[in-house]
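Instructor's aside before we start: the two examples that follow are unrelated to each other. I chose them only because their records fit on one page, so don't look for a connection. First example below.
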Amino acid sequence: MSLEVAKILVYGALNGLNTYVKPGGVHRLRPDKLFDEIACNIVSILDGIVGAYEEGERVRKGEKALTSVELGRILARTYREAYRVCSIVHPGYFTPMLIASMALGYSGVESILSDPGKFKRSLDSILAGNKWGDIRYFIDSLKSIGRSDMNEHLASTGLTQVSLIQSGVSYTDVFQALGSRWPGFILLDPRENLLLNGLRKLVEYHRKLKNAHAAILLLYLDLVEERLGEQYREGISEARRLGLMETHEGARKLFELDVSLRKNGIVLNGFVEQVVNLAALAALEGIR
């Protein structure tokens, strides 16, 4: 079961990454090294997803206590494997689905929306973990994979060894801090509820369109539209009216928007982080 879940998640994540044209974001048609790096990361974490799912399953079966789960070490081990294979790691593109796989194993649900309440309770319980030694191990491991920038960002938000001991910091706090710069981590913020809401919206789009890539593209446009100026919002509205990638005119408009955004230095890859993770989890709902 764990391997099957992992394969579906990897397939869904690659689906989200490949979907084009995502104006301002990484996608298959961009001659961009970042695309190859992310794809490599996603493929390389298959064993990590299996391990996370089985760890949650052991807790559900009573073979170990949730308090004994060392999430930081599980993440660090998966990050190091991605670094070994790819020589670079972009954690925002896969950490939420990795932790979600543990919550799936812990909750025992086959998909998130089959019992969202049970899944969310399991996820929140995992993220509430506050073993300072394990969190410190996770934060320190970021240096070993060439992500000192993430380590330094956490320190700048006040997450230091002293605060870990004195303040009872949890993984929820850590991922909230990371989410302020790498938006993929916002999916793990229980205050935002973006994971469930985004997943429901993606499923609804797919129900209407019967096309996974079209549904993923619409979700991406929803996420970025409010963050853009009026000129670009109007361009997105026109692309929607023209049929997006389903028509030559719609595809051309999306491509023009992509070129214009990049020419003006507007990069929206943080929202691609969210879309890739949501597409991975949506694959368990049958969106493939």
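Example two begins here.
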Amino acid sequence: MPFDNFKLNDGRSIPGIGFGTWKIARDVCGAQTQQAVEVGFDHVDTAQVYANEEEAGQGLRDSGLKREKVWVTTKWSGVGDKGVRESCLESLQKLGLDYVDLYLIHSPRLCKGDIEGTWAQFELLKKEGLVKSIGVSNFSVDDLKTLLKTAKIKPVVNQILLHPYVVTQQTPLLEYMQENDIVPEGYSSLIPLTSKPGGPVDKPVKEIADKYKVAPEQVAIIVTTSSNKDRLERYLAAGDIHLTEAQVEAIDKAGAKGERDDKRKKKAMDVARYGLLAGLGVWAGFKLVL
């Protein structure tokens, strides 16, 4: 069973899971995008800075799926210091499309202190029909507040880092987005399993996976990428898994513990680094005296 779509504040609906092209080499991006679409993904997420939009577009065409059946997201990343409109037109040309379904500001820093002005340019792209929906990525609460002060059109999503080990720090942002009808779109949701194995989240995730007889990565996933066809099919099959409130709470608690552990480790490393630098300073002073 596929993932549910999510209703956006502009009336459109976005697929609940997407195939991302971040870090996919150009020489294989086309084939991997085609494979993802052929196994059932109907949302492809790319970006100007990924440098593989052209290949992703070719993969979409090679899949044979009709344009209206696939949701395409790309992002303005400020590559080459190119402006919003120029970048959008270039992305459309590379993707081989007349429009994209969702166009995002990849990071607030790209706005160079003018979030309001940058967003106004995005609103113009939507009015022209070059993009169907507009949103942001990596925006904080303060960034969103600045944008919303003058926005005529609300961002439909804020694509953010979202996995169990950052849920606590992201909660104020998630709450603000909910208040303003902005959908959170998570990336790097598999970090606890791929980059931080052995952490507190492993236990509840494994217990849930064992109970439902599924792979651990099927328990937590939103925007993902993989070259493995079987793994892609498992990701899609995760739409059949419905966690109880208790199971979600167990993962959240484990994530919060992991987050606290990470902070303690960072603090210890900072203290050790400071001590090392101080020691080197004393040694350098001693040598100078000699």
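Residues 221-227, 280-290 have pLDDT under 50 and may be disordered.
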